[in-house]
Amino acid sequence: MNKYENVSMAVIRRLPKYYRYINELIEKDVSRISSYELSKLTGFTASQIRQDLNNFGGFGQQGYGYSVEVLKDELAKILGLDKGYSAIIVGAGNLGQAIANYRSFEDRGFRTLALFEKNPKLIGLKIRDIEIKDLDDIEKFTRENEIDIAIITTPKEQAQDVADKVVSCGIRAIWNFAPIDLKVDKDIIVENVDLNESLYTLSFLLKQNIK
Amino acid sequence: MNKYENVSMAVIRRLPKYYRYINELIEKDVSRISSYELSKLTGFTASQIRQDLNNFGGFGQQGYGYSVEVLKDELAKILGLDKGYSAIIVGAGNLGQAIANYRSFEDRGFRTLALFEKNPKLIGLKIRDIEIKDLDDIEKFTRENEIDIAIITTPKEQAQDVADKVVSCGIRAIWNFAPIDLKVDKDIIVENVDLNESLYTLSFLLKQNIK
DNA sequence: TAGATTGTTAATCGATTAACAATC
DNA sequence: TAGATTGTTAATCGATTAACAATC
User: Fold this and answer.
1) Structural contact between residues B110 and B87, judged by C-beta atoms closer than 8 angstroms
2) Measured by CB atoms within 10 angstroms of the end CB, which terminus of chain B is less buried, N or C?
3) Residue B100 to residues A183, B23, B95, B140, B189: CA-CA distances in angstroms?
4) Are strands A60-61 and A65-67 parallel, antiparallel or unpaired?
5) pLDDT for A211 beyond 80
6) Chain B residues close to A194, C-beta within 8 Å
7) In this predicted structure, what is the pLDDT of residue A4?
8) Torsions phi, psi of B172, nearest 5?
9) pTM for the structure as a whole
10) Residue B5 has what pLDDT?
């Protein structure tokens, strides 16, 4: 069942930012915060913050605000950071390696179990303690390990084939860094990181600014 | 002057996708396309496509559609891809190296002139033909070379300092990969690529899907 | 000319902001 | 209790979709 079916993507994409600032408050030993103070941190309006959070439950208390600790735990649960999702990275070039090296994902419960790569020069190497395996071993590996997420960091020419393969292996979620729109069943979750889109937007804004 | 001041960010962020599909059509030697056909490719509605493009000019022709060639050139101009913007990458870890290696940016006119790095083991190395220089040489380098964009791929602890430095060197646009909200003058353009936000969103959707 | 498809206005939908009663 | 701040409804704003006259 889809508990938060009616929550819009606009809301969901704000949650990570709330979560980040709440974690910063925890590091600073702040124990409570009002929507107004949180609005000054995040740049969202207090009204929006209250409405966003109320999509998921009444975490606050009138006259008091929100408990930072409670909010952190609730946001983590909402975002699924308590699930300990497992991942494989397909494509062990610089980008795949960068992600494998990125500690903050595992701090949030994500575990990268292996990288897969076509280039024989890379197969057998390790990134931290994560082995780079042969691309052809994906089927075998996914049979022996439960994998939740496939991270695709291959060149765009290979991305669709890789997507087809990991979906056929039963993986339900793809974090796609290749600049193409993957064609997959609609029950497969695809989250794209499109660097071209981001850079072109920057370029547009820069052009506007200079004129 | 800000020519397209009144155009919303929602529109702007769709332009790169139009541009990508238009380029695919060019590779397939398609010379004309209607908003309806483009809607099938991109997933946006035909109405939206016509309205989006009309923010920038009437590129189409009644009864005919859009010339693919014209649309490509116009989109490139709108996005500033004809400007040949120059960039430096600050942080020469895997992510910085991945971006330096990414050919498709220079195919669109972006030139990476140098990487900068603190780690002495990396200084002096080259990524393709791009040299990794000492972080302390940024001032000197920006005095001798006109740089439009700073790409920040350092750990988050250093990102704000780096931002301050590149802004003081006269750089007006930052492509930021560190998971923090940089504090800069409001006339400086910052485009963030927030991998945490993206992964958490995927995690949220995956959790919803599985339940 | 008839058919196709744009450019553009009007209608709808959804998201954000404002307001305030509820309540800690 | 009085003050503060939430949760939630209503008002506003903006973005998307529908419709159609203009025109190639």
Assistant:
1) yes
2) N
3) 28, 23, 9, 21, 21
4) antiparallel
5) no
6) 16
7) 87
8) -105, -5
9) 0.96
10) 83
Band of residue B1 on the pLDDT scale cut at 50, 70, 90:
very low
pLDDT in tens, B29-74: 999 999 999 999 999 999 999 999 999 989 999 999 999 999 999 9
pLDDT over 90 at A210, yes or no = no
Quote the tokens at residue B107.
Answer: 């195919």
CB B141 within 8 A of CB B88: yes
Degrees to nearest 5, angle at CA B124 with B123 and B126? 110
Which protein residues have Cβ within 7 A of any strand C atom?
A 8-11, 44-45, 47-48, 50-51, 61-64; B 33-36, 46-47, 50-51, 53-54, 58-66
The first and second tokens of residue B84, run together, are 């040949």
Q: How far is the CA of A46 from the C1' of C15 (A)?
A: 15
All structural domains of chain A with their residue ranges: 9-79, 85-196
A8–B contact, CB cutoff 8 A: no
Tokens 């790095």 found at: B117
CATH of span B9-79: 1.10.10.10
Render pLDDT for B113-164 as a digit per residue (tens, 0 to 9): 999 999 999 999 999 999 999 999 999 999 999 999 999 999 999 999 999 9
A18 CB-to-strand D distance under 7 Å: no
Query: Which CATH class for the B85-196 domain?
Result: alpha beta
Q: Which 3-state string (H, E, C) describes chain B?
A: CCCCCCCCHHHHCCHHHHHHHHHHHHHCCCCEECHHHHHHHHCCCHHHHHHHHHCCCCCEECCCEEEHHHHHHHHHHHHCCCCCCEEEEECCCHHHHHHHHCHHHHHCCCEEEEEEECCCCCCCCEECCEEEEEHHHHHHHHHHCCCCEEEECCCHHHHHHHHHHHHHCCCCEEEECCCCCCCCCCCCEEEECCHHHHHHHHHHHHHHHHC
Strand order in the sheet with A149-152: A126-127, A130-134, A111-117, A86-90, A149-152, A173-176, A189-192
